[in-house]
Design brief:
Chain lengths: 323, 340
């Protein structure tokens, strides 16, 4: 390793091996700054993960669109500018034309505008259902995992009963109990199907925490039970629940669409929603498949975005893949 | 359990009134449909202020269970604790859970074996140290933070102010154990129980941690119960040693007396199984044969008899009684060595 660094010299096997080892060594060096928590280092990994970036980009685009859609939608979703071109016999669904990117639906309403504005309802239902499910699940799971004993048994049997119904069937049953369907019946119905999943997950990881060394060490220092639960057990047990929540967003959106497709969602067509649009499109599925194609595609892409995000989050938070 | 109560010619330093007095401690584990298991079977020992007492024995001899029972940290179900552990005039075993909580961390603290898993991974070191002071001394986090930095400095952590912001995974093993020691010492406890504090560390760090413990114990006058399987640790640190086997104390003595003149064959076996640099080349180590699993029940035999090279007939016929007092003694029908 002295003067043979000329440009003409071909790298020997030894050189290349060294390079590889050097590369490995630098790759293995963890950049540790004071105050970098596990969450922060997970975030550092996520920032470089292409899967996460794609998922986050998709999600971000749809969230931004949902927020600004009422202002950027070219047409009012309740107006029917193309109603004159609707011919129930020959041309039930007017096709694209200047000013109407995707054409109109069977009532002459601008399809593109309705798709845009429809993202609002869909995302709102998905997010609120997941949040509500999280709230219920965390409460039940933390209760069962922290108190244990009789409370644990009772809570977990209830959870088992809820889990034994197929999710969609349970949501369907609850949604049909409502006197008049609205987006809130959707949200509550879907949240109910998510509660047992979160509860079970959190309870399991709370139990693992309860018998962990650091909880024993905290107890040996006289830390009060409430602080043990909220400071030492819950934060450590939340990882899998957060990941599941991200994945559940996708499920919730799909379930919401399924329920509205079945007519259990908000029937008010002044508030478009992708599942509702899908449901309305089935009458024209042979003449105008694009009516179903666009909302279905949107649902798939959004669900994909959340799933990609959740999967990479799971990997980043997994202690086994750390370092 | 006949124990003479003599307090004379006691080895080690400290005043004469014991700080912690454990008497006939028994811990029985009971699982449904299984036979009872006596993890700790009538252990008695004293710890005086400023004294370092060792509990020595191999895995499964009941030393960790003893410490957890004293701390009131055994899991609530499936076990039964009897006997007494008088600390400062109160029996720790009969205190209410909340009264016990008030004493843990402030009067009695504990250091555990595995420093990484004993720290909360999602909270900074500083927060974990201040938590103890907030809990027991009623300080605000702001008031406790400079004290925490002082503590970290005292246990030999360089750049303590920056380390306060670190998370456990960012510290080395030795640093983590130092941080745990800082947490245990945060409220100046009068008794510190160290449960194999050096087992998870490499040898150089072990020596550092032991030196640190020794220094802190001397500086603060804290009594220390050192739980270990390593007689080397005992030799360097403890004033008094209790050798445990099968949940009973089989031999007790001052460290000098015990190492010079071990009486119980198990103690002899433990001493012989330490590798020595001054042994002749080619000399084989002589480990204690068998394992704890070969134990006989103490009820009608000496539990160590199946593994004992010195066993005689009564060893498998009746329980050996304690010969000696609170300070030195052994439990054996056929002891080794001369008279003490």
């Amino acid at each position: 390793m002295d003067d043979n660094t000329g440009p003409s010299r071909r790298p020997t096997l030894g050189d290349r091996r060294k390079e590889r080892i050097d590369a490995l060594a630098t790759a293995g060096t963890v950049v540790d700054e004071p105050g970098k928590s596990l969450l922060r280092s997970a975030w550092e990994r996520l920032r470089r993960d292409p899967v996460f970036l794609v998922g986050a980009a998709i999600t971000l685009v749809f969230v931004v669109l949902a927020i600004i859609s009422p202002w950027i939608a070219p047409w009012d979703v309740t107006a029917n500018p193309l109603i004159d071109k609707v011919r129930p016999q020959s041309n039930p669904v007017p096709g694209p034309e200047p000013g109407h990117l995707l054409g109109a639906d069977d009532r002459g309403r601008d399809l593109f505008s309705r798709l845009l504005v429809g993202s609002r309802q869909t995302l709102v239902v998905g997010v609120f259902a997941t949040l509500l499910g999280l709230l219920g699940g965390i409460t039940l799971g933390a209760l069962a995992g922290a108190i244990g004993g009789f409370v644990d048994t009772v809570v977990m049997r209830i959870v088992d009963v809820m889990l034994s119904f197929p999710a969609l069937l349970l949501a369907f049953t609850i949604a049909s109990l409502a006197r008049e369907p609205s987006q809130w019946t959707l949200i509550i119905a879907i949240a109910t199907t998510q509660v047992p999943i979160f509860a079970r997950l959190l309870r399991g990881s709370m139990l693992a925490q309860r018998s962990s060394d650091h909880v024993l060490a905290a107890r040996s220092l006289g830390v009060r039970p409430r602080a043990i639960v909220f400071r030492h057990m819950l934060p450590n047990a939340m990882g899998p629940v957060i990941v599941q929540a991200t994945l559940s967003l996708a499920t919730a959106i799909i379930e919401a669409a399924a329920l509205s497709f079945l007519g259990l969602g908000n029937p008010d067509q002044r508030q478009p929603e992708w599942g509702q649009m899908l449901g309305l499109a089935q009458r024209y599925i042979s003449e105008a498949p694009h009516l179903a194609f666009y909302p279905a595609g949107c649902i798939i892409v959004v669900a994909l975005g959340f799933t990609l995000m959740g999967e990479s989050l799971r990997e980043a938070l997994d202690p086994k893949s750390r370092r | 359990m006949t124990q003479a109560t003599q307090h004379s010619s006691r080895p080690g330093a400290g005043s004469s009134e014991p700080l912690l007095s454990v008497r006939d401690l028994r811990v029985t584990f009971q699982r449904q449909g299984e036979e009872e298991f006596h993890a700790v079977d009538g252990v008695s020992f004293d710890v005086r202020p400023g004294q370092t007492v060792g509990l020595v024995g191999e895995s499964g001899c009941g030393k960790s269970v003893t410490s957890l029972a004293i701390m009131g940290l055994l899991p609530g179900r499936g076990n039964r604790v009897s006997g007494s552990a008088i600390f400062d005039g109160e029996d720790l075993l009969t205190l209410s859970p909340s009264a016990m909580r008030d004493r843990r961390g402030s009067e009695i603290a504990m250091i555990f074996q595995d420093p990484l898993s004993s720290l909360n991974p999602v909270i900074s070191i500083g927060r974990q140290v201040t938590e103890v002071m907030e809990r027991h001394q009623g300080l605000s986090r702001k008031q406790a933070t400079p004290k925490a930095a002082d503590l970290l400095e005292r246990v030999g952590i360089p750049d303590p102010k920056a380390r306060l912001l670190n998370y456990p995974h960012q510290l080395s093993g030795g640093m983590r154990q130092r941080a745990l020691i800082a947490m245990a010492l945060a409220c100046n406890p009068r008794l510190l129980i160290a449960d194999e504090p050096t087992t998870a560390l490499d040898v150089t760090i072990q020596a550092q941690i032991l030196a640190l413990l020794k220094e802190l114990v001397v500086d603060t006058g804290t009594a220390l119960v050192m739980i270990t399987h390593d007689l080397g640790v005992v030799a360097g640190l403890c004033d008094e040693v209790n050798v445990l086997y099968g949940g009973k104390v089989v031999e007790r003595g001052g460290r000098h007396g015990l190492f010079r003149d071990p009486r119980h064959p198990y103690t002899v076996g433990l001493l012989n199984s330490i590798p020595r640099l001054d042994a002749a080349r080619g000399d084989k180590l002589s480990p204690v044969p068998g394992s704890v699993a070969d134990n006989l029940p103490w009820t009608a035999a000496c539990a160590f008899a199946p593994r004992c090279s010195n066993a005689i007939d009564p060893c498998t016929a009746e329980t050996p009684q304690w010969e000696g007092d609170q300070v030195v003694g052994f439990r054996c029908f056929n002891p080794m060595g001369g008279t003490r």
